[in-house]
Amino acid sequence: MSTFAALAEPNRRLLLEAMIDGAKPVNQLVELIGQSQPVVSKHLRILRESGLVSVERNGQQRLYSINPQPLRELDQWLQPYRQFWADRLDALEAHLNNLPEEEDR
Amino acid sequence: MSTFAALAEPNRRLLLEAMIDGAKPVNQLVELIGQSQPVVSKHLRILRESGLVSVERNGQQRLYSINPQPLRELDQWLQPYRQFWADRLDALEAHLNNLPEEEDR
DNA sequence: AAAGAGTATATCTATTTAGATATATATCTT
DNA sequence: AAGATATATATCTAAATAGATATACTCTTT
């Protein structure tokens, strides 16, 4: 399944978003998205097969985490369209505003 | 339909890509993606309803062009994931490298 | 006004897909 | 080893969707 198709399902986007702050076991993901465990496992399988997440065993749990490569490619796919919403300086400024915060130095 | 769902269909992505260099009438788009006219019109309707394209009449033709707003939002959706493939400086550098070319000044 | 060109819509069908339910597999605990 | 816990898979069903075909609409040309 393409990255776009994998991301087309809202619950799968929720699952990804839940992993932004780190790897999560399935039972935590089940709670977070409020769907049955088999449904969550099925979505996770699709995310896995699309390369969007990786799994790691930890005892009887499986820890799912984000695999950034397909998202990177999505970022690149967007490239030719960026000309439509900004000239060079605006794009740079927007990018700087979007960067994660950090202490002054 | 969500932006993601609209973009999940390969022919719709082809249609969008065909509009990168400017507005195009339906018959040109039909040729470019090699699908029947009704199928193309259907895909264009979905792109329209998702806000990804705009139409303008020109005599008996309809000119379709890219409407960037949803793609912009997709770009913003990606933001929290960018930390996974770069630290701040790398991200900035990558962004600068990605900007459209322009003459020196 | 009639004919033709460009495009949209309606309807049908086959395929895909999300979620439900039941069950299997693997690990841990006692 | 038996039970409990965590997760995956199989099967079914209802809904969504892409493409095919037929037809309607609108503008232009004659």
Main attributes of the structure:
homodimer; 105 residues; alpha+beta; Arc Repressor Mutant, subunit A; 3-stranded antiparallel β-sheet; 53% helix; disordered C terminus; DNA-binding
What's the structural blueprint in terms of helices and strands?
The structure is a homodimer of 105-residue chains.
Chain A: H1 3-7, H2 10-18, E1 24-25, H3 26-33, H4 37-49, E2 53-58, E3 61-66, H5 69-78, H6 88-98
Antiparallel strand pairs in A: 1-3, 2-3
Chain A binds a DNA duplex (30 and 30 nucleotides) through residues 9, 11, 25-27, 35-45, 57, 59-62.
Detailed description of the structure:
The structure is a homodimer of 105-residue chains. Mean pLDDT of chain A is 88; it is low at 100-105. Chain A has helices spanning 3-7, 10-18, 26-33, 37-49, 69-78, 88-98; strands spanning 24-25, 53-58, 61-66. Chain A starts with a helix and ends in a 7-residue tail after the last helix. A 3-stranded antiparallel beta sheet of chain A has the order 1-3-2. Chain A has a domain at 3-67: Winged helix-like DNA-binding domain superfamily/Winged helix DNA-binding domain (Arc Repressor Mutant, subunit A, Orthogonal Bundle). The first copy, chain A, is α+β, with helices and mostly antiparallel strands and 105 residues long. The A-B interface holds A 2, 4-5, 7-8, 10, 13, 16-17, 20, 66, 68-69, 71-72, 74-75, 78-85, 88, 91-92, 95-96, 98-100, 102 and B 2, 4-5, 7-8, 10, 13, 16-17, 20, 66, 68-69, 71-72, 74-76, 78-85, 88, 91-92, 95-96, 98-100, 102. Chain A binds a DNA duplex (30 and 30 nucleotides) through α4.
